[in-house]
Design brief:
- By secondary structure, the protein is mainly α.
- It folds into 3 domains: 78 residues, no CATH class; 28 residues, no CATH class; 69 residues, no CATH class.
- 51% of the residues lie in helices and 8% in strands.
- Strands 3-4-5 form a 3-stranded antiparallel β-sheet.
- Helix 1 packs antiparallel against helix 2 and helix 5 packs antiparallel against helix 6.
- The longest helix has 26 residues.
- GO terms for molecular function: hydrolase activity.
- Keywords: Hydrolase.
- It comes from Rhodocyclus tenuis.
Length: 219
């Protein structure tokens, strides 16, 4: 209850005890009344049903959730009587940000105004950054360099060409291995069918060797 009354909860308790038929109920009403009295003497004005329910359960009077039952109307009436007697709960103090406290220490109003604008801009940028983080999806392409996606299959498949798998050094070595100048310097030459032969005509690398390297290089 939000209103305040001068009626002491003792009077409400006496009325409730007078109509209570069971001794166990009268005992529990008295215990609940004592619990609320201690709460009031401690300076608390929180007599909400959830708060008193937790205290009652801790004291072993009754289960907190039982206060919401229809049979617990008398207990709720007693709690409400204490709430009205104590008055509304004090409003919670407004929590100020640490940056606000620092700004209030600046005596020069002009400098304080500038700093307030800077802090406001910082907070705005932080909010925008958090929004971007929440809506940003980074896709990492782990396909090897030179890979292409084949659409021939029902599920896209990454196809990697052989030349794309070579390092620059490996590519250069293969190009040199079948170049005419390189072969000539070593007394070798390429045959009509891609084989590599020496000066005596002896086959050093089998038929198709040079052609195979050029296919790998894509040339």
């Amino acid at each position: 209850m939000s209103s305040t009354t001068d009626i002491h909860p003792n009077a409400v308790l006496e009325s409730l005890l007078a109509k209570a038929e069971r001794s166990n109920r009268r005992a529990n009403l008295t215990k609940m009344h004592e619990l609320c009295r201690k709460q009031h003497e401690a300076g608390s004005r929180d007599f909400s049903v959830p708060s008193i329910g937790r205290l009652a359960e801790a004291e072993g009077i009754m289960k907190g959730r039982a206060l919401y039952n229809a049979q617990s109307a008398d207990y709720r009436a007693l709690i409400e009587a204490w709430a009205a007697y104590a008055g509304p709960a004090a409003p919670k103090p407004i929590k100020t940000q640490a940056s606000h406290d620092y700004l209030m220490r600046i005596e020069d109003p002009a400098i304080r105004s500038i700093m307030q604008a800077i802090v406001a801009e910082r907070d705005k940028l932080k909010a925008q950054l958090n929004t971007l983080k929440a809506h940003t999806h980074v896709t990492v392409d782990r396909r090897p360099l030179g890979a292409t996606v084949s659409s021939a299959a029902r599920v896209p498949v990454a196809v990697v060409e052989l030349v794309a798998q070579l390092t620059p050094t490996e590519r250069e070595a293969l190009q040199k291995a079948v170049s005419a100048d390189y072969l000539d310097e070593r007394g070798l030459k390429e045959g009509s069918h891609g084989e590599i032969v020496n000066e005596r005509g002896r086959t050093m690398f089998e038929v198709g060797f040079a052609r195979a390297i050029r296919k790998v290089l894509g040339s």
